[in-house]
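Blinded run. Sample ID left blank on purpose so nobody reads anything into the name before looking at the predicted structure. Input follows.
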Amino acid sequence: MIDFDNVGLRYGMGPEVLRDVTFDIPERSFQFLTGPSGAGKTSLLRLMFMSLQPTRGFVRVFGKDITTIPQQELPKLRRRIGIVFQDFRLLDHLTTFENVALPLRVRGREESAYRTDVKELLKWVGLGDRMNVLPPILSGGEKQRAAIARALIDQPEILLADEPTGNVDAPLAQRLLRLFMELNKLGTAVIIATHDLSLMDQVDARRMILSGGRLEIYE
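Blinded prediction complete.
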C-alpha cells in the first residue's frame, strides 16, 4: 500500500532529516513507528500522507509515485487515508459531532445515513456527552479523542496516527489501542508513531525505529 525506496528528505538547504529510507506497508498490517524526538517520525508520516515530497528516492502510495501524480488526484488518494495529527486540526466553528462527521460530509453522504455511527464512535472514545461542544471548550485529551474519531469514522484503508495516546491517561490509551486493533482486523493498515514503549509491548507488531534520519525495522 505504501512503498519507500531509498528516500531522502531535507528542508530547504538544511541537512537531510531522512536518509536512505526503504520500507513497505503491506495491506492489513500493523506497525509502530518510534525513535527519539527530532528523529523524523512526523516527516515520515507526512510523506506517507502525500503532504510532503521526498528530496530524493521514490514514495509510492497505492501504487502511484507521489512525485509524478497529477495534483488534482491527490485529494482522492488522501481520502483513503485516515490521519491523526499531533496538533489535532479540528475546526473551531464546528461541534465535536460535526468535526468527526466531516470526512463523510465531504464524500456527500447525508447526515441521516451516518448520525448513528458518529454517535456510537463518540461514545466509544468517551465523548458521548461532548458531541455538541465546540473545540475551544474541549480539553487537550478530548481534542485528541475527537481527532482520532474523525480519522476512524470512514474506516480508511490506511491509518496514520502521530502520538495518538500522548494526551490521555493509561486506561483510555488501552481502550484506544483496542480500537486501532479492531480497525486493523477489519482490514485497515495501521501505523502508530509513539514514544510509549509500554503501549508497543502490548501488541505483537512490527517496529520501525528512526534514529539519526535512518530507519531500522524489527519484525
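Unblinding after everyone has recorded impressions. The radius of gyration is 17 Å.
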